[in-house]
Sequence to fold (678 residues):
Amino acid sequence: MDFGTFLVQCLNSVQYGLLLFLVASGLTLIFGIMGVINLAHGSFYMLGAYMAFALSPLFGDQFIVMLAVGVVLAAVFGYLLEWAFFSYLYQRDHLQQVLMTYGLILVFEELRSILVGNDVHGVKAPPWLEGSFALGNLMSYPWYRLFASAACVVLAVGLYYVVNRTRLGMMIRAGASNRDMVRGLGIDIRRLYRIVFAAGVALAALAGMIAAPMSSVYPGMGASVLIICFVVVVIGGIGSITGALVASLLVGFVDTFGKVFFAELSGMGVYVLMAIVLIWRPEGLMGRKV
Amino acid sequence: MSHRIARTTLTALALACVATLGHAQQGKLKVGLMLPFSGTYAALGVAIENGFRLRLEEQGGKFAGREIEFVKVDDESDPAKATDNVNKLIKRDNVDVIIGTVHSGVAMAMAKAAKESGTVLIVPNAGADAVTGPMCAQNIFRSSFSNWQPAYAMGEVSGKQGKKKAMTITWKYAAGDESVAGFKEGFEKAGGKVDKQLTVPFPNVEFQALLTEIAAAKPDVVYAFFAGGGAVKFVKDYAAAGLNKTIPLVGPGFLTDGTLEAQGESAQGMQTTLHYADGLNTPRDTAFRTAYAKSFKLQPDVYAVQGYDAAQILGIGLAAVKGDISKKAEFAAAVEKAKIDSPRGTFTMNKAHNPVQDVYLRKVEGNENKLVNIAVKNLADPARGCKL
Fold:
């Protein structure tokens, strides 16, 4: 592999990693702070992608506006979902959480089938992001992929700021480390959870919307992203946003270079990585010791 | 004189009575339709059933004088449930014939069960080479294709177009391996060389790393096997990387069948091979398409054709044994001898009961896979491992 190809592969890794981070950050928030194993998280990613499919003809080249509208819709949806279902799960054990969220996957898949059908659909990138630029004389790289990476970086920075520098972030971090103490200090933990859950859903949906023009929308797209996101969350340390970012990038690199060098075994690469990390640091890279 | 006429008439009448009695005893023929009626392949299952029913309707609702009773099972394209489902049809419902299915894994379980019980099985889609290879049997037929067929044809076409160096890319699973092997065989026979075979774990759709590898290696042609969502994404990513301008992307028809709306601009001009194409413009195909559209208010596709031909195969076999499906040897012999007048073009059967058929080279134009020419005429699957 010459140096140019190597650089392009690094770009591929970062770009894939950043997109993973966007989905996984919502999962780690919900998992780490609320203690709920949310198997339906992949469905929220799918929801986002189908939302992009449904909304993009209405908004035309106002792609950013569409993303904003989609995020608001997803957050409202998440808020209602927490109120209707997830709020009953906090006191229950993990088995019941898994059962209910698995049930939600089936419901969402069936709803998708009824509403949109089982066909594969493409979503057009906005006109101002169409086309690509040349990477040396090797290949061209779509502008949209660069935009997606940039959007992910902006969101990662934003998320870091909110969690580490704002009052809401402080409450979230406190809620993650000691639920009862936070409640004792007079903070409405139920409302906090509802906000966190809505934010988690919105993040996953946003990732779905951003990914839609790159990946097209198709049945079962949520399931494939869910597993890899759990890997990211476990490697990064449950509940840690920074950990999720580091882990996403690691997974991006291992997956990309695994495919290139060990094609036959590439399916295993990220799981081997997970096993190594778990042996070395069972709480994950940035997880708190238990 | 009048006596003799009376006697002849009486005899004829008596014979007629016996004949109808015979039919009454045969009763209805039970056909088990084991197809995907839910999930990703639901639309394919429906198209196959529609095609089958269209042929039945054309025959006045009967094959060889026997009415048909359908027993439908949704196989959900789930290999884990396949053995149970097919055994229910064979043992509980006592069906005479099974039609199915789309998913290769499920079809393999069905072939195994049919081979054991001797029930006639007609596979209307699943392309696993083994069904008409090591698993072949007197009572197992296929109205569609083997994975080897379109792949081999594409290899030969690419080789004859003067391409020397090829790369292949597929999901790492049985169908992908079979398809790539077929391409390699055809391509190397025509003087080319397959340099590198890339694989992606199924159903991973993150292709960027391998596209970069393709760009660095600069082969003359890339052969890809993906279906459904994977096919859409791969074709789009390939075009977005600008590779379609320098290295032609080719594949079996599934790469661009039923996915063109989603692939849009990125698939235009792509060449694929399959045993069916848009714009065949033969009187047979036009008649079929008109009748199908009239009956079901839908445009037919390759799956509808395969369902229709499954019904033709059943009809031909039954006619030869006068509706008595227990005569397996005569049933098979009739199908083996037959020229099946399919909308895709006339085809015959090889010894393993897989169609010997023309494979078409097609080119994507708008939302159609337009016929270019016949890639390979009367292409027969080698039926490796079949001991018939």
User: Anything to note?
Assistant: Chain B touches chain A at residues 39-40, 42-43, 172, 198-201, 203-206, 208-213, 215-216, 228-229, 231-233, 236-237, 240-243, 258-259, 261-264 (CB under 8 Å). The CA atoms of residues 114 and 218 of chain B lie 47 Å apart. DSSP finds twelve helices and 15 strands in chain B.
